[in-house]
Amino acid sequence: MFIQKNTSSDPVKKLFEVQTLRKDFLSVLCAQKVSVTIFLMSGIKLQGCIEQFSDDCLILRKDGIVQILYQHAISSIMPVTPFTAPSFSSSAFLDSSETHD
């Protein structure tokens, strides 16, 4: 569950934390070659493994077919199988000891 602990109103700091969380998440998925389902803003569902990513886009591969996706078009990324992830560096967004009402 995602809980925002930091109540700072600094939008630059919040943007940095979100980008770091996304980068950490994508790094783990890419390094472990985890199969993912990606839902686009248009509702289209894509599946494959994330090969590489940058701030703007990512490369998705499945059965030898390679697609480049712009990150602003992605609604969500869901791992198909469970994976082991180290603690993400943006711990301001993650806390297992608190619950969200």
From TrEMBL:
> InterPro entries from the entry?
Hfq (IPR005001), LSM_dom_sf (IPR010920), Sm (IPR047575)
Q: Which GO terms describe its molecular function?
A: RNA binding
Which ranges carry the Sm domain? 23-83
Output the Pfam families linked to this UniProt entry.
Hfq (PF17209)
One GO BP on record is: regulation of translation, ncRNA-mediated
**GO cellular-component terms in the record?**
cytosol
Keyword terms? RNA-binding, Stress response
Can you name this protein? RNA-binding protein Hfq
